[in-house]
Amino acid sequence: MILAVSSIVIISLFFFVTKKKDKQQYKSTPTPSLDFPKAWKPILIQNVTFYNALNTQQKELFEFKIQEFLLNCEIIGVDTTVEEIDKVLIAASAVIPIFNFPNWHYPNLSEIILYPNSFNHDFETTGPDRMILGMVGNGYLEGKMILSRHALRLGFQNESDKKNTAIHEFVHLIDKLDGNVDGIPEVLLEKQYTIPWIDLMNKKMDEIYDETSDINPYGGTNRAEFFSVVSEYFFERPKLLAKKHPQLYDLLEHMFQQDMEDKNLHFKKIDISRNDPCYCNSGRKYKKCCGTN
């Protein structure tokens, strides 16, 4: 039995079709004017392996994009309190897939609703059939995303399961920008790659059906879910994906413009002790420097 880890309420709507990835210009959005909060950096270091693999300049850009995202998207808790770690991890999930696209924003997202755990199709957090961990909304939920806080945090705690619910949902948003949630992200994929991508999706989904694949079985649900599932795999276990599915890795690398094999994402997240040297290289102990906040 395949458990639903993501759901899209599909109602036909007209969407503004954005230009290709190298020409994306969206409406004017607020940009950060303050320094990156001290309290947020340890959250990134201790939870986001992708961030730790970046050089100093790239880390500064990642931090800027985190702030920019949070200035333009409201996060609301339902039956739960939105903590700083939740804000930072949600923003990191948004930034990771589009990190190499300098002008990228999510024009189809304005609000994220955070539930404490899984929920059902009636958006109930208690009772039966609560198998949904993330959802991108349409219709009256247009512009909103719903996430389970438990799934959000687990996606960054477990480094070996090839799963990250929040990244999964942001990939759905990217897919949705051309007006169709179909696993063929026109904003990332040039026309000459469309047929090879469709053929490869069909082949890999057949392998899932035949139970000869290590790809999450939920990826066999449809092409949209396949794209999001293998994107999770790409960002969570890139070296393994490149080894087991080289063609798939190459096409995803082309789409996201990221060589994830080159990021050395095999190392563990970094734990910061209060008596360790501060990560900001001040020469002081963490507890007397950035750990004072």
Automatic annotation (TrEMBL):
<dbReference type="InterPro" id="IPR004027">
    <property type="entry name" value="SEC_C_motif"/>
</dbReference>
<dbReference type="InterPro" id="IPR010384">
    <property type="entry name" value="MtfA_fam"/>
</dbReference>
<dbReference type="InterPro" id="IPR024079">
    <property type="entry name" value="MetalloPept_cat_dom_sf"/>
</dbReference>
<dbReference type="Pfam" id="PF02810">
    <property type="entry name" value="SEC-C"/>
</dbReference>
<dbReference type="Pfam" id="PF06167">
    <property type="entry name" value="Peptidase_M90"/>
</dbReference>
<dbReference type="InterPro" id="IPR042252">
    <property type="entry name" value="MtfA_N"/>
</dbReference>
<protein>
    <submittedName>
        <fullName>MtfA peptidase</fullName>
    </submittedName>
</protein>
